[in-house]
Amino acid sequence: MSTTFVWPVRVYYEDTDTAGVVYYANYLKFMERARTEWLRNFGFEQDVLILDEKVIFVVRSVAVDYHLPAVFNDALEVTAGIKQFGKVSMDFQQQVVRNTGGREELLASGLIRIACLDSETLRPKQIPSPIAEVLLSV
Predict the structure, then answer these.
(1) How far is the C-alpha of 31 from the C-alpha of 27, rounded, in Å?
(2) pLDDT tens-digit profile, the chain (138 residues)
(3) What three-state secondary structure class fits 107?
(4) Beta-sheet pairing, 5-10 with 75-85
(5) Is 52 an annotated catalytic residue?
(6) Of 15, 17, 47, 65, which one is the catalytic site residue?
(7) Are 42 and 128 contacting, i.e. CB atoms less than 8 angstroms apart?
(8) In what order do the strands lie in the sheet with 5-10?
(9) Containing domain of residue 121, as a range?
(10) Quick one: CA torsion of 79, 82, 112, 55, rounded to 10 degrees?
(11) Domain containing 29 — which CATH number?
(12) Terminal-to-terminal C-alpha distance of the chain
């Protein structure tokens, strides 16, 4: 499948809870950003896909494991790579890691299923061939 894409994320104060630790749901936001940038990396903008292809990509399911906490001002790397590619869905394997002094620490890992829907009916729709061709070729 596709190679792993890496997107840098900085932890801001707004990402943390009262203990100064990244709030658990924000890891999902970090992963969402990485998937959006992954798609953009291949030349696909989601707003353009709605207009041209009449499709949207939505989260169908999420399984996340939290390993270590991130804290304010941490520099993180969020990965996104396709684990499985289907006709109407893609499964992403994602990780959030902190690299400190050359040592990589796994903070969170997840498997996220993304479904392709018709933007007007919100029913499942086959991933458009221009997208599938590009994503399957890497």
Answers:
(1) 6
(2) 457 999 999 999 999 999 999 999 999 999 999 999 999 999 999 999 999 999 999 999 999 999 999 999 999 999 999 999 999 999 999 999 999 888 999 999 999 999 999 999 999 999 999 999 988 887
(3) strand
(4) antiparallel
(5) no
(6) 17
(7) no
(8) 5-10, 75-85, 89-100, 103-118, 55-66
(9) 5-137
(10) 110
(11) 3.10.129.10
(12) 7
Amino acid letter at 102?
G
**Amino acid type, 76:** L
Please give the single-letter amino acid code of residue 108.
A
> Domains in the chain: how many in total?
1
Q: What are phi and psi of 59, to 5 degrees?
A: -75, 125
Token pair 């992954």: residue: 38
> What residue type is assigned to position 65 of the chain?
D
Long-range contacts of 89-92 (CB under 8 A, 24+ apart): 89/60, 89/113, 89/114, 89/115, 89/116, 90/114, 90/127, 90/135, 92/31, 92/35
Amino acid at the residue 42? F
